[in-house]
Amino acid sequence: MKFGIVTIFDNTNFGNRLQNFALQEILKHYADEVITIKNKPSPKTTKERIMRLPILAESVLVNKLAGKKRKAEILKFTKKYINVSHKCYYFDKQYTEPIENCDYYCTGSDQIWNPKIGGRINGFNYLDFSHKANNFSFAASFGISEIPENYKQQVQIGLSNFKYISVREEAGLKIVKDLTGRDDAEVLIDPTLYINETSWKKIIKKPKGFSKDKYILNYFLGDVSPSKNQEIIKFAKYHNFKIINVMDDKSQFYNIGPDGFLYLIMNASLVCTDSFHASVFSFIFNRPLAIFMREGDGISKNIGSRLETLMNTFHLNACLVSDGHLKEALLDNNYAEGKKILNQEKNKVKFFLEKVFSTAY
């Protein structure tokens, strides 16, 4: 059995590469080979996206920040840990036959269905090149709470290509129900949550220059206001913590890969972030966590549904910095109840995949 994964193929984003790796490892339990189908926009679409710089989506904004050395480290991680197709496909091109000769095709996770990320509303991401009976989604994310009116018909047609649908957020479940009438879709955890702490530790990498000094790890994909920055600095000074800002291109840790990113989270005294995956790994590694809502205009700000689902599901609401002030209680993290729930959520994944592959053997 050979399974093909269609996801956002982005060698500039830590969370994207880690969720891709995690989904591959999950599906390996059901297949002889799991391959991620490399994809990118066609040159024409890329040019059009550059022309629309003021309204580029979150992933493109992140890409602008990633330097050549960081990209090289992320690419190195992909080559080492993820089985990728030799051929690269244009996701905005229509394919009339199954590609890479897979028995099953899976789309997910990450914001693979976000219509506001350039070109993501297309048949490729909805697996229209394959037969419905062979298609399923794993914790696929729309990234937004509501589909814009001008995209609804395309999304509705796309969802009809799937025999089994699972999404990552409650908001995604509602979108599927509203557009298709289907009530058999499920909410599954992001694949990174399924992989246990011990397994993640096998692929971590200590960054060069790392010292054992206590530190706050800053990882913000949105804007960082002066008030937020000053609050973190004040908290760090009070506790004699250093501050490591992964998104600062002047930081010695800017040019790390996903494995180095995991190491920095695992050893942090506090993680301050507006990132879904940074929050996920803080939870997995039992690190104190301060979740800030995303700042900025437009698309980069609109990420509330996935963090809301994460916090509500695993009782992490105490980690939310709702008033802009870091409180001492954030350092006394207790994820015991959340970890019990995580075990239940992992069982949902098993049941879902057993249903998908019940006729595969």
Looking at this protein, list some descriptive labels.
single chain, alpha/beta, 4-stranded parallel beta sheet, 361 residues, 11% strand
Total number of helices: 13
Helix content: 25-40%
- What is the chain-wise order of helices and strands? EHEEHHHEEEHEHEHHEHEHEHEHH
Silhouette: globular
Number of strands: 12
Mean pLDDT: 90
Task: List the strand order in the largest sheet.
Answer: 2-1-5-6
Helix/strand-derived category reads: alpha/beta
Span between termini: 9 Å
Q: Give the amount of beta strand, in percent.
A: 5-15%
Q: Provide the low-confidence segments as ranges.
A: 52-64, 298-303
Report on the biggest sheet.
Answer: 4 strands, parallel
Radius of gyration: 20 Å
Overview of the molecule:
With 361 residues, the protein is α/β, with parallel strands linked by helices. The protein is built from 13 helices and twelve strands. It has helices at 14-27, 43-51, 58-65, 68-81, 152-159, 170-180, 191-194, 197-201, 226-239, 258-266, 276-284, 304-313, 336-356, and strands spanning 2-6, 33-36, 39-40, 89-90, 104-107, 135-137, 166-167, 186-187, 215-219, 242-245, 270-273, 289-291. It has a four-stranded parallel β-sheet, with helices on one face. It has a four-stranded parallel β-sheet with strand order 10-9-11-12, sandwiched between helices. The model is unreliable at 52-64 and 298-303 (pLDDT under 50).
